[in-house]
Amino acid sequence: MAGTRRALLVTLGLMLSAFAGGGMLAAQAPIIRKPMPAPNAQPNVPPLPPAVFDNGLDVGGEDLKAKKVDTRLYVDVLVNARGPYKFVVDSGADTSVVGLRIARDLQLPLGSPAILNATTSRNLVDRVMVSQLTLGPTTVTNLELPALKESDVGGDGLIGIDALAKQRLMLDFERRFIKVEDAARPPRYDPRDIVIIAKRQHGQLILTQVRAARLSLDAVIDTGSEVTIGNTALRDRLLRKGRTKFETVEAIGVTGVAMKLQIARIDELQLGPVVLRDVPIAFADVPPFKLFGLADGPALLLGTDILESFKRVSLDFKARKVRFQLRRCRTDAVVISTSSSYSLTRMWSTGGAETCGG
Question: What is the mean pLDDT of residues 116-130?
Answer without folding.
Answer: 82
